[in-house]
Design a protein that fits this description.
Elements (H helix, E strand, L loop, with lengths): L6 H12 L6 H18 L6 H16 L4 H12 L3
Amino acid sequence: MNLVLKPGVKKRIDERVKSGQYAFAEDVASAAIMTLDQQERFMDFAQGELDRLPKEGERSIAKHGTLDGEQAYRNRKARRHRP
């Protein structure tokens, strides 16, 4: 497969290879695709939702306070296993 990349994209790929972070340009492309896969799988937010969520969290903290990290994890785990 041959791709034609915009100069700015090619420069960013080259910088990552030159830094030693990746051995080849193909490795950068593979990492980018894996990141896209993760975003599509785990970050499926509606438009504007990422702007709304922090404000919603701040209101919740003001109203209900905060949870212990272990308790928050248990709550999240319980929500994920509900039918």
